[in-house]
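Model: Ready when you are.
Researcher: Fold this.
Model:
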Amino acid sequence: MIPRTDTNYLVIHCSATRADQEITAEHIRRWHVDDNSWSDIGYHWVIERDGKIQHGRHAQSQGAHVRGHNHESIGICLVGGMAENGDPEDNFTPEQWLVLEMLIEVLQVRYPAARVVGHYYFTPYKTCPNFVVEHWLETIQ
């Protein structure tokens, strides 16, 4: 399959769930379909707590993860990102970090012009994915 040529952003999100919650891509899909009445999960990829990577929407399909930029972006969601008290928290597992790094490397080959950003890049009042993507990118390069 030929990759989309209009992909300008690889957007990293978090599910805003606690580290002890057993959340899967299927849970998120149900939230998006049943609660939001969307046609499918909004993300293209979901990285679960154990590092298992799950397909969401097909990469050729427009996502539903960042208002105004879905047409030009790929959405990646890390499960977690919320502290016990409901505050934002960078609580991702080593497995998630490793898989995220590998996924970003693959996607950058497929979409070499795409910029890697956090959801907050487009929505400054949000902290999602609850870590500074630019700093993380510096650590892996």
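Researcher: Now this one.
Model:
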Amino acid sequence: MKKLGILVTLIFVLLGLSIAQAWAQGELQPMYNGTNAATATLSISGGTANCLGKVKPSGATQSASISMKLQQKKDGRWTTIATWTGSASNGSTASLSKTKSVAKGYEYRVYVSGTIKNSDGSAAEKPSKYSSTVSY
């Protein structure tokens, strides 16, 4: 039984080394880069929702567009109650900071989605993110 445990451990170590070597040589690529390229934040104070969204390109020549939606949970379904858009170029972060009056007795969240494009106009990434849910 002890030999079997050593053999299994050795197999996992060799497999891990093979994967690390393939990654380092560029043979393996992540299926989706930039999963941290989008951020979404929501806070509510005194009946005002403070919504913040960002989409950050990883390259200096990339452009970014952003769409931010404030959503309200009503009757068990999320409904968009406000939408804003923006963009940025030359590697700058596309960001939005908006406020909206909200009603008591509901849950709210912000959804941010974006498109990051290369300098030739081809889409590089389409990151998205939900904020935490806030009850008011």
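Researcher: Key takeaway?
Model: The chain is about 15% helix and 50% strand.
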